[in-house]
């Protein structure tokens, strides 16, 4: 397979023509320069802008964005995209003048658009143009935007193509009125939850994942949602995404179903190639993160490879899917987390491991780092929970590269403790400190069998031999802090039965429950044995 030439990209006008005006519009385009890469720049970031970049400027509008527009132009950027409330207001005029003077294109982004969605779509266009240049083809097989336009012509509808994480990869342009679901999907926003719940209840997502059958969905006038067709994109047993077709101002064509089945197979070819081109980099970044967290790879090497300054504060966040089919959801959850993490920092690292997903968020602000991580994590969980329950655990903020492994360790402890609290979606050490500390103590006892009290092992062996429950009753009694009624209710036995069992446990072991230290170590060891 030919390798893409990184010196090639997509022209600004090609980007605008492909995306249409649903997300972005030209304000100043002095020349049709070639976009080689798409970068997100926060006002607090060090400017990592290079020649040929299209800069998505977040966190600054109007006059506040002027210095950043000029700085990007000095560093060789060919275009800057800024959110504009009203294209004709005074603030937009100031930005136009600054861009005109700097000789850089200025693109206005719709207020409701999500930056990570816009970045993904722009990158898709640039990547397709790059592959076209490397193969010498003017139109590459599998160009998703071109394919979406073709599907629209064949079906008579309005098309969007999504990945398994429900992120729009491409869409057709249309002069017909689009409904609210399509508009929100393109902007990267959540559709009406009542409608999405119905789709889940009807088993639509399951059908799309399980085969090539075209799914027909009726119009919902009450929700402002038009009739739709949908088909899953598959490579063998692997689900790669979905093609959605919204009804336009006319009926679907007679051969719409057949056209969709064929289009899904063509889309699969493109997505497989797209994955193979990026899989090496994805694997490298995932392996770098695993190596960093395990202590096998030097932090300086990781920082150099991904372009992050790990001497600045960072944090590890761990995500776990809960409930049924959690293993099946691991891939799409990893994709969703990667999109959100990259929107925060391009150098963010995400890797699945042992059924969990680890994310390293680097270059946090010196002040307010904890709040930044908490806000981003809540956004990710909010987006992910539409597809099923998800829990996240935030590790301690690592002040420098030498404390990243400790951040991971704390996050793992917090996640373990959070498993007992399904109502908590984003868990932190502050709210689960007691459970985390107790878990640490139990772990110490578990790892050092030489310091354990052999009398408790004798008690456990006695229970196993005689079918008694003395050890379990003693643990419940100690956990209840001597509250016989509470412990008995927890075990569903009479209080007198519990008193008898505790008395027998003391007789068999000789443990002195009047000694607070013996009570503590007994409780810890019994929890180790239970685990």
Quick overview:
This protein is an alpha+beta fold and 531 residues long.
Oligomeric state, counting identical vs distinct chains: single chain
Taking the alpha carbons of the first and last residues, their distance comes to 52 Å
Shape: elongated
* Tally of helical segments: 19
Report mean pLDDT, rounded to a whole number.
84
- How big is the Rg? 28 Å
Computed structural class: alpha+beta
Strand adjacency order, main sheet: 2-7-6-5-4
Pfam families: HTH_30
InterPro entries: CdaR-like_regulators, PucR_C-HTH_dom, PucR_C-HTH_sf
Domain PucR C-terminal helix-turn-helix: 471-527
Protein name: PucR family transcriptional regulator
Describe the structure in your own words.
The protein contains 19 helices and 17 strands. By secondary structure, it is of the alpha+beta class. It has four domains: 10-115, Udp-n-acetylmuramoylalanyl-d-glutamate--2,6- Diaminopimelate Ligase, Chain: A, domain 1, CATH 3.40.1390.20; 144-274, 2-Layer Sandwich (Beta-Lactamase); 298-432, Alpha-Beta Plaits; 448-530, Orthogonal Bundle (Arc Repressor Mutant, subunit A). The strands form four sheets. Strands 2-7-6-5-4 form a five-stranded mixed sheet, sandwiched between helices. α5 runs antiparallel to α9. The radius of gyration is 28 Å and the shape is elongated. This is PucR family transcriptional regulator. Residues 471-527 form the PucR C-terminal helix-turn-helix domain. Pfam families: HTH_30.
């Amino acid at each position: 397979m030919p390798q893409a030439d990184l010196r090639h990209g997509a022209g600004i006008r090609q980007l605008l023509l492909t995306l249409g005006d649903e997300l972005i519009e030209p304000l100043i385009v002095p020349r049709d320069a070639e976009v080689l890469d798409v970068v997100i720049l926060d006002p607090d970031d060090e400017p990592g802008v290079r020649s040929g970049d299209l800069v998505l400027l977040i966190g600054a509008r109007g006059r506040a964005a002027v210095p950043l527009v000029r700085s990007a132009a000095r560093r060789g950027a060919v275009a800057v995209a800024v959110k504009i409330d009203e294209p004709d207001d005074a603030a937009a005029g100031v930005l136009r003048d600054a861009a005109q003077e700097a000789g850089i294109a200025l693109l206005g982004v719709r207020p409701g658009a999500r930056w990570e969605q816009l970045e993904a779509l722009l990158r898709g266009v640039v990547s397709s143009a790059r592959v076209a240049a490397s193969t010498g083809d003017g139109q590459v097989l599998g160009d998703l935007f071109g394919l979406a336009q073709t599907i629209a012509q064949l079906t008579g509808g309005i098309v969007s193509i999504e990945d398994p994480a429900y992120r729009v990869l491409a869409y057709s342009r249309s002069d017909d009125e689009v409904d609210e679901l399509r508009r929100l999907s393109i902007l990267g926003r959540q559709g009406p939850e009542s409608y999405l719940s119905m789709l889940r209840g009807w088993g639509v997502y399951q059908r799309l994942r399980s085969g090539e059958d075209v799914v027909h969905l009726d119009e919902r006038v009450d929700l402002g949602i038009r009739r739709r067709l949908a088909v899953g994109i598959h490579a063998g047993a692997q689900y790669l995404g979905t093609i959605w077709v919204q009804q336009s101002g006319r009926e679907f064509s007679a051969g719409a179903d057949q056209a969709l089945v064929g289009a899904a197979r063509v889309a699969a070819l493109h997505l497989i190639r797209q994955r193979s081109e990026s899989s090496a980099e994805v694997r490298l970044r995932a392996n770098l993160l695993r190596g960093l967290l395990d202590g096998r790879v030097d932090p300086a090497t990781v920082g150099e490879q991904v372009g992050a300054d790990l001497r600045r504060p960072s944090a590890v966040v761990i995500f776990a899917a809960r409930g049924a089919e959690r293993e099946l959801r691991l891939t799409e959850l990893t994709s969703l987390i990667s999109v959100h993490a990259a929107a925060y920092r391009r150098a963010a690292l995400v890797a699945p491991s042992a059924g969990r997903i680890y994310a390293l968020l680097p270059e946090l602000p010196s002040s307010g780092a904890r709040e930044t991580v908490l806000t981003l994590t809540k956004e990710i969980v909010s987006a992910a929970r539409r597809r099923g329950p998800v829990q996240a655990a935030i590790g301690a903020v690592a002040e420098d590269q030498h404390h990243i492994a400790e951040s991971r360790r704390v996050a793992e402890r917090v996640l373990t403790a959070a498993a007992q609290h399904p109502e908590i979606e984003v868990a932190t050490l502050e709210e689960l400190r007691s459970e985390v500390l107790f878990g640490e103590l139990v772990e110490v006892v578990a790892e050092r069998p030489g310091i354990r009290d052999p009398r408790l092992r004798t008690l456990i062996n006695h229970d196993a031999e005689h079918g008694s429950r003395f050890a379990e009753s003693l643990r419940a009694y100690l956990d209840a802090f001597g509250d016989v009624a509470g412990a008995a209710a927890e075990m569903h036995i009479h209080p007198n039965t519990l008193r008898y069992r505790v008395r027998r446990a003391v007789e068999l072991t000789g443990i002195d429950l009047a000694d607070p230290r013996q009570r503590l170590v007994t409780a810890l060891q019994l929890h180790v044995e239970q685990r």
